[in-house]
Write the structure tokens for this entry.
Amino acid sequence: MASQQSDSAVKLQYYLVLAHLEQVLGGLYLWGFVTHIGFDWDIITRPASAKTSWYGRGAYLAARYLLLAAFVDIYFGIDNQRPTVCLVENLFELALPALAAQSATALIVTRVIAIWDRKLLAVVLSIMGLLTQLCFVIYSLANVDTGWDPIQKSCSIQSAEDTGRVTVVFLTVDVFLLGLMVVGLRRWKNAGQAQFSLWHVLWTQGWVWLVIVTLCGVPPVVLLYLNVNQVMNLLLLTPQLVAIVIGATRLYRSLASFSRGESEDSAVTSCGSGGS
């Protein structure tokens, strides 16, 4: 009995750490989100130079607002005291972050397709990557195991196995697409001087993006497969998601600023500063 009480106390402490971490990250993200609402409105109202530019804008907005919705759902879950809504709550808790992450991947796809000049193979590989992610998300949602946890007195995901698979798939697809982007950039490295500045920005951002995805994606995957406990399995997933979405949207804003005539240095270095 004493051992069970001790285990329950430790588990509760883990849940409190996870809840506090999510609250802190949500607050930081909300601050950055509000800071850049003006940019959101600008890209909504600014006429697009080409129809395809709307794809990038849509992916950018989806990544930001789906992650915001995910944090709203997390805050709702912290205060939820009704076991009857566990399934719905946990479905949103899984679906919203996954779709936000996929929107960040869609931002990569728009660059890959543009860099490869819409070559059929690049388009097919990019779409296949997105569809692979989506299939695993749907599979994990269809098999989600949720329940009421009497220790933390809230809904919880009982199994993280499918979450682990989805995380691995997202990491693999993102790294593959970023690699495809870098290879595509190598093909037109010797472009004319007028295009060299743009190439340099895309090249630098491509490597920055690859580093962000790798550094943020590998630790959660390792924890998931070590399977220390349920809370530790989920501990780094929220920081990973926030970092990837912030990184992707920040790089998008940086490139947009560069294309509007700001200096190359500001477009490249701004991706490393704060904000979301």
